[in-house]
Design goal:
The structure is a single chain. By secondary structure, the protein is mainly beta. The termini are far apart. It has a seven-stranded antiparallel β-sheet with strand order 1-2-7-3-4-5-6, with no helix packed on it. The protein has a single domain, classed as Umud Fragment, subunit A. A hairpin with a 2-residue loop joins strand 3 and strand 4. The model has no long low-confidence stretch (mean pLDDT about 85). It is built from one helix and seven strands, in the order H-E-E-E-E-E-E-E. About 15% of the residues are buried. About 5% of the residues lie in helices and about 35% in strands.
Length: about 120
């Protein structure tokens, strides 16, 4: 008697669309010269899906609009927050009850450094 080995599997529906390689740059970066990668620290943005250790794709060429996530420099420190312009000034909201919102006033040294376009994290 001879032994036979067989494998069971299903053809991939993606086989007909396979590429030679996958470039995350093509999928995640719109403005190559103005895009940077930064590593997130802390858990203040968990409510917005950003965890400590995530790689953030930050585009410096985009002007932020209401409720976008931005990387900013506030009083000399980098900070990632939700950008919310109001009649009283810009409010920087976290995604955590432990980190209260910050109302940016003229007394603050504040610059939007870029808009966070993607957050990449492991499972």
């Amino acid at each position: 008697m001879s032994k036979t080995h067989s494998t069971v599997g299903f053809p991939s529906p993606a086989e007909n669309y396979a590429e030679d390689f996958l470039s995350l740059d093509e999928h995640l970066i719109e403005h190559r010269e103005a895009t940077f990668f930064m590593k997130a620290e802390g858990d203040a943005m968990m409510g917005h899906g950003i965890r400590a250790g995530d790689i953030l794709v930050v585009d410096r060429s985009i002007t932020p609009v209401d409720q976008q996530i931005v990387m900013a420099v506030l009083n000399g420190d980098f900070i990632v927050r939700q950008y919310c312009p109001t009649p009283k000034g810009i409010v920087l909201r976290s995604g955590s009850d432990d980190s209260p919102a910050i109302l940016v006033t003229e007394e603050h040294d504040f610059t939007v450094w870029g808009v966070v376009r993607w957050s990449i994290h492991g499972l």
